[in-house]
Amino acid sequence: MDSWSENVPTEGAIELPPDPRALDAIGRNHSLETALADLVDNSIDAGATTVLIRFVRNHGRLRSLYVVDDGRGMAPDTIDAAMTVGGRRSYNAQDLGHFGLGLKAASFSQARCLTVMSRASGHAAVGRKWNLDRVSEVGFSCELVPSEFAAAELGKPWPHPLGERGTVIRWDDVAAFPASDNVEQTERFVDGKIAKICQHLGLIFHRFLENNRIQIDIDVHDVDEDLVGSPAPVTSLDPFAYGSSGRVDYPKVLRAELHGWRISFRCHLWPRRSSKPQFRLGGDGVKMQGLYFYRRDRLLQAGDWVGVHSDHPRLQLARVEVEIDNDIVGIFKMNPEKSRVLVGPEFAQLAASARAEDGTSLSDYLTVAEEVYRASTARSAERKAMIHPGSGLPPRVRKTIQQEIPELKGEDAIAIRWDLFPDDMFFYVDRDQRTLWLNKRYRTMLLGGKHGGLNDLPLLKSLLYLLVANTFEGDYFGPRDKDNIDLWQTILTAAVQAERR
Ligand SMILES: Nc1ncnc2c1ncn2[C@@H]1O[C@H](COP(=O)(O)OP(=O)(O)OP(=O)(O)O)[C@@H](O)[C@H]1O
Ligand SMILES: [Mg+2]
Predict the structure, then answer these.
(1) Which of 195, 347, 356, 454 is most deeply buried (CB count within 10 A of its CB)?
(2) CB within 6 Å of ligand 1 — which residues?
(3) Closest ligand by atom to 47 CA
(4) Domains of the chain (ranges, CATH numbers)
(5) Separation between Cα atoms, residue 440 and residue 322, nearest integer Å
(6) Sheet of 318-323, strand order
(7) Percent of the chain with pLDDT over 70
């Protein structure tokens, strides 16, 4: 009675095409930046060397977004496959494409309307359009764009005009675009988005940007005035481009092999302090620690320890480069948005068994990362001592300096005062009188007509104090001090004169 039957019987079949509304749900994990990265993937796969991302504004309102590339374009039969959801093709070893979904998922996550216009060498221009509102009414019938319109879009005076091949992707009805036609609000929105897109694409495609395999620019076209703003170039943001390593024996490469799978972990240590923008990507270093997975030179995931360890502020200098090449692709899965990597159970084993030539394991590396972080924090507590300022600065500023900088013992404080110089020089380091003199002839101008006093212009004086304080140290001027003072003098005198003009 309740015995299990191996096969479930069937009697005939009915056609149940997916409900068109399913399209609304794909690509839900995308943001504008990650969606654009998916389109850039396609441009790279098409062999493009330039990609332009363009915001189009009409009557003060953002209306469309274009992605234009000079890749090999699509012939009429290819474009139909391209518009098909899940229309996979055969992929080359280096291709970034994988699911046959990217273009559609990325576009519908952002826009109600996707138009693709393209031309391959030796073919006429072709165009296809998906409009989500139409799809939900009449089903999956893709609209055909007249060849002349497609040709006109392709033939626009793009900054890098397309020759006989290229592709224009156009999004209309973009959900994130502000509904208002307030120019200032639109401007703010666009500026913010451009900055985010530059950062995201700069990071994801840094290896391509670094060796000029691709150039990506972003601009804004104001249709009313037919004005195109100057393009913002996307520049490479290499998350491993520190000046000097946090420790001399790093980076180290740790290798592991399991069931024929080979993987290497390139373990880096950032220095404690860095002015590079990629040091504080995403606003804080903590989030940027962890594993960086690359597939075919495209960064799939930036940071996260994927179960190897948990995030900790003390590990914020640790970043590890991992290549997912074809040998080990089986133990990884990427999400269709290509913004996360999911690892199989074998990964933890590979990570645990990885060793450098000197025997270092991942957990040794993490211990070192913590040590470097802690040692450098302790070091930063002992700042180099300096001579403190005397009269000339407001008490509050002097107090802050006293709190922040240890005082150099055995040296008198430096006064900062005004005097009328016989020449145009801006300042004078007077070691005998322990005074930094400022030329009075600039004082009224710098004060903008306000009355001066003993403690006037504290910002200017603090900056100068930080610059010259150590030239007051010791018994005599070293040649280096003299040279520095000459340099500062030349520049600051030119600057103050420029200010006066
Ligand atoms: N800019 C482009 N230039 C030339 N062909 C393109 C371009 N964009 C898309 N295509 C074609 O459209 C197809 C579908 O693109 P789509 O991004 O949807 O899938 P995919 O790239 O094959 O895989 P994935 O889902 O991993 O991105 C591509 O395989 C390619 O043939
Ligand atoms: Mg794709």
Answers:
(1) 347
(2) 38, 41-43, 46, 69, 71, 73-74, 78, 82, 89, 97-104, 167
(3) 1
(4) 22-233 (3.30.565), 252-380 (no CATH), 395-500 (no CATH)
(5) 61
(6) 252-258, 261-269, 318-323, 290-295, 298-302
(7) 96
